Amino acid sequence: MSDIDNFTPELTADGSFTFFSQEFGEAFHSHYGARQESFLKFVEPTQLALKAKYQPMLRLLDVCYGLGYNTAAALQTIWSVNPNCYIEVVGLEINTAVPQRAIAHHLFQNWNYEYTNILSYLAYEQKVQTSRLQARLLIGDARTTVQQVYGLGFQADAIFLDPFSPPQCPQLWTIEFIQQLTLCLQNDGILATYSCAAAVRTALLTAGLQIGSTPPVGRRSPGTVAAYNLNGEVGSWGGRELGRTITPSPHHPITPSFPPPLSQSEKEHLLTRAAIPYRDPQLTDSAEVILRRRQQEQQASSLEPTSHWRKRWQSNNFGF
């Protein structure tokens, strides 16, 4: 059976479709709604509609491009606000069969979507150039291709971090990979992900970002949004100075309270063994090695067991 044969559309609750990955044992999107997840977990938290009002150009880095839904939602949102906004997109994807099958199965038909031809070219040719768009797909291990992105000097206004879950794909949730991502983030750019795992949040903090929660979409657990300190100060984590000095962009106003603060339960979650991050020092280790390394570090840790935190906050249990 070929890769192409492996991907069959599965209906989600909002009427849109997703695929199931046999390799990772997970669907590409939440069964509560694939389309709504792209808008509510990625596009809205990165404030692209607001930025499109003030910026003539926006750059997007779509990590784990997959079916192309996050990029599709971003294009629709930006051009509905500012049809003249010039957009640069870089998507990172390991398997070209995924976006190609999304096009072959006409998965954008029920979106009432007008940019399917763009997504089709991107899926099959890995690049698109129009008067208001430059897009490319970099195919391969994202740990390698993200270094190409940085080498190109690409600085994203929005980063969509959308791999399979940390237990299934720890390679793309490590401290080292997320540090590479932050090198590709504009000073006033925003990173969004569906995950609220404490290990992922620790990695974002270690990379010098501030973090906040995004509203739950279809389930109890929130997502995470991250950005550099927007007050022009160097961020800190664990007493160590990290990050870089930030000058807010003159193109659009910055909301002083962004990112929104974590709840007390979320803050305490970051003090448990669940917060021990995934590590991949050379960005080459297998999932098994990364998982085993973290498990050993957790076993040797003096941090509070996560089960104790869960009992204290049972009413706010995020399902870890």
Q: Over all CA atoms, what is the radius of gyration? A: 19 Å
Class inferred from helices and paired strands: alpha/beta
Major β-sheet strand ordering: 7-8-6-5-9-10-12-11
The helix tally amounts to 11
Record the SSE blueprint:
Layout: E1 10-11, E2 17-18, E3 20-21, E4 26-27, H1 34-43, H2 48-54, E5 57-63, H3 69-81, E6 86-93, H4 97-104, H5 116-125, E7 127-130, E8 133-139, H6 142-151, E9 156-161, H7 175-182, E10 185-193, H8 198-206, E11 210-214, E12 223-227, E13 236-237, E14 240-241, H9 264-269, H10 287-300, H11 306-312
Helix pairs in contact: 1-3, 2-3, 4-5, 7-8
Write a structural description:
The structure is a single chain. With 320 residues, this protein is an alpha/beta fold. It has helices at residues 34-43, 48-54, 69-81, 97-104, 116-125, 142-151, 175-182, 198-206, 264-269, 287-300, 306-312; strands at residues 10-11, 17-18, 20-21, 26-27, 57-63, 86-93, 127-130, 133-139, 156-161, 185-193, 210-214, 223-227, 236-237, 240-241. The chain is built from 11 helices and 14 strands. Strands 7-8-6-5-9-10-12-11 form an 8-stranded mixed β-sheet, sandwiched between helices. It has a two-stranded antiparallel sheet with strand order 1-2. A two-stranded antiparallel sheet has the order 3-4. Helix 1 (34-43) packs across helix 3. The protein is globular.
